[in-house]
């Protein structure tokens, strides 16, 4: 974990991560580790709450389980990507579903990555780091484009 931790700089430490999982056992380790690197971690245990939190807090990244009650993770991702308010938030699936069909479906719905459970925390940290950096670069490009248009 130290190799990945050394790569996380101060800009990334100000990141808000929304973890969406209905099973506390599955997300407690991730919360503990992410918070130890000064990430702000929000938790949602159902789809409706996730959609509300995503709109209200605009997290930098969402770690989303597929196997959720009432609204599954695939539908949550679809709804997030359909909304102007949340479509640019990177969604990473963290799920026990490991079939290639499920992975493809996740990517087709707009997920940027797919991690199978049980999670390997170094893998999650590395993936989160990459997608935080990509989001920051995307935001910089958008801002520069706005300046060019003006």
Overview of the molecule:
The chain has 150 residues and is of the alpha/beta class. The chain has a single domain (2-149), classed as Rossmann fold (3-Layer(aba) Sandwich), CATH 3.40.50.2300. 55% of the residues lie in helices and 15% in strands. The chain has helices spanning 2-7, 10-13, 24-36, 47-57, 73-82, 100-108, 121-149; strands at 16-20, 40-44, 61-64, 91-95, 113-116. The longest helix has 29 residues, at 121-149. It is globular.
Question: Could you give the topology of this structure?
Answer:
Blueprint: H1 2-7, H2 10-13, E1 16-20, H3 24-36, E2 40-44, H4 47-57, E3 61-64, H5 73-82, E4 91-95, H6 100-108, E5 113-116, H7 121-149
Parallel strand pairs: 1-2, 1-3, 3-4, 4-5
Helix pairs in contact: 4-5
Quaternary state of this entry equals: single chain
Count the helices. How many?
7
C-alpha end-to-end distance: 45 Å
CATH superfamily grouping? Response regulator
Q: Going across the major beta sheet, what is the strand order?
A: 2-1-3-4-5
Helix content: 40-55%
Number of strands: 5
CATH topology: Rossmann fold
Biggest sheet statistics: 5 strands, parallel
How large a portion of the residues is in β-strands, by DSSP E? 15-25%
Low-confidence residue ranges: 3-7
* Mean of pLDDT: 89
**Structurally, how many domains make up the residues?**
1
Structural class: alpha/beta
For the record, the CATH architecture stands as 3-Layer(aba) Sandwich
Key features of this structure:
5 strands, alpha/beta, disordered N terminus, 150 residues, 5-stranded parallel beta sheet
